[in-house]
Amino acid sequence: GGVPPVTDLVLGATAGCLACVLTNPLEVVKTRLQLQGELQPPGTYPRPYRGVLRAVGAVCRADGLRGLQKGLAAGLLYQGLMNGVRFYCYSHAEDAGWTRYPGGTVAAGAVAGAVGAIVGSPAYLVKTHLQAQTLAAVAVGHQHNHEVSG
């Protein structure tokens, strides 16, 4: 008696995408904080990102308010693929009866999670590149300059 796998796919993808819209600004800030000074010896580089609130300000100064949503399209693709596939695979496992066996729930969840992660991984990489992309003055290393149309 659960919902059909296609419904799980749509609901899982939608929930992941809604969460992405709300958390993407924090992802941008986290990515910038993590990359800051990554390619230089400690103490030899400027630190435009100092703490979460200052990093939000630095992103807005360098990229404008829209900079807090950098990589959103790739993030939505990633979340939609990863979560949709996870929910879809798990729903299929339930329908096939895998979850009725001892350890079946864990195995079905692990397989569904792994398949979702594999499918979504390329979009996650592009999302991270886009989130790191900024002005040369505060950029870290090579800027991949991905273009997102729309």
- Give the number of helices: 4
Mean pLDDT: 87
When the domains are counted, the total is 2
Structural class: mainly alpha
How far apart the termini lie comes to 41 Å
Q: Could you estimate the helical fraction of the residues in percent?
A: 55-70%
**Radius of gyration, whole Å:** 19 Å
Unreliable runs, pLDDT <50, ≥5 residues?
none
Number of strands: 0
Please describe the biggest sheet, giving its number of strands, its sense, and whether it closes into a barrel.
none
Indicate the overall shape.
elongated
Protein name: Solute carrier family 25 member 34
Membrane topology: Multi-pass membrane protein
Family: Belongs to the mitochondrial carrier (TC 2.A.29) family.
Solcar repeats: 3-96
